[in-house]
Design brief:
Elements (H helix, E strand, L loop, with lengths): L2 H17 L2 H12 L3 H11 L11 H38 L3 H6 L4 H28 L2 H4 L2 H11 L1 H36 L4 H35 L6
Length: about 240
């Protein structure tokens, strides 16, 4: 797989389709404000192979498609939620009962913690292909067609696919970490200069939320286009 070509394509797609279109960018910010559901619907359009970046229209369809993708994500998260409940349930019950001694004596089950991490990794590997397959096929059952999902990854190449996932994670994580670090520094400076207080803290939180809303569409579209190119490298059958 030519990772450089895939990255350049995703960057160009995002730059021309979103960064270069202020009206479309503003609509996607609104889509994220709406609990992110229409944004998921827009991502579904990208997963279907739309080139160039599609318009942000037909909001009813965006909501419906977005909800469907949310449902798929929730179903994939069920195993993790069950393990999480067994892992942290007793501590939460102790907190709710104000049993501070039980809270202090609580310690995580290392075996369950390891299982949770393994399940998270498995879901993280399967979910991108499952989501794109669901978008292409339009059937919930295809999002859980594990045989077809594994066959697609096999065609991409397991090593190629894992590297692709790690690469996109790093590419997205680096600017996010820089932004967070910058916000923390600027927030600390502003709070000190303004003498602290709730007003400075509220201002910092509001600025952080605004920056997240502005940048989130760029990261979402970039990731969606990138994973679409990775998926298409397997030349899956329709």
């Amino acid at each position: 797989m030519d990772y450089g070509n895939v990255l350049n394509d995703a960057f160009g797609y995002t730059k021309e389709g979103i960064f270069g279109r202020a009206d479309r960018w503003m609509k996607l910010i609104l889509a994220i404000i709406c609990i992110g559901i229409p944004m998921n619907g827009y991502v579904m359009r990208i997963y279907r192979g739309a080139v160039p970046a599609p318009e942000v229209d037909q909001w009813g369809t965006l909501f419906i498609d977005g909800l469907k993708l949310v449902v798929v994500g929730i179903i994939y998260a069920i195993p993790m939620m069950i393990i999480w409940a067994f892992l942290y349930g007793s501590m939460l019950l102790a907190v709710m009962a104000a049993n501070m001694q039980a809270v202090q004596n609580w310690s995580p089950n290392l075996g369950l913690t390891l299982v949770l991490y393994i399940v998270e990794i498995i879901v993280g590997i399967l979910m991108p292909i499952a989501a794109i397959r669901f978008a292409r096929m339009g059937s919930f059952s295809e999002a859980f067609n594990f045989g077809a999902i594994l066959e697609t990854i096999k065609k991409i190449g397991w090593i190629n696919y894992i590297i692709a996932l790690i690469l996109v994670t790093i590419v997205i994580a680096i600017p996010i970490c820089i932004i967070i670090f910058g916000l923390i520094i600027l927030g600390g400076i502003s709070i000190v200069m303004l003498g602290g207080g709730s007003g400075a803290l509220i201002g910092f939180i509001a600025a952080a939320i605004l920056i997240i809303l502005i940048l989130a569409p760029l990261f979402s579209v970039f990731q969606a286009r990138y994973m679409t190119r990775v998926y298409d490298s397997a030349a899956p059958e329709a």
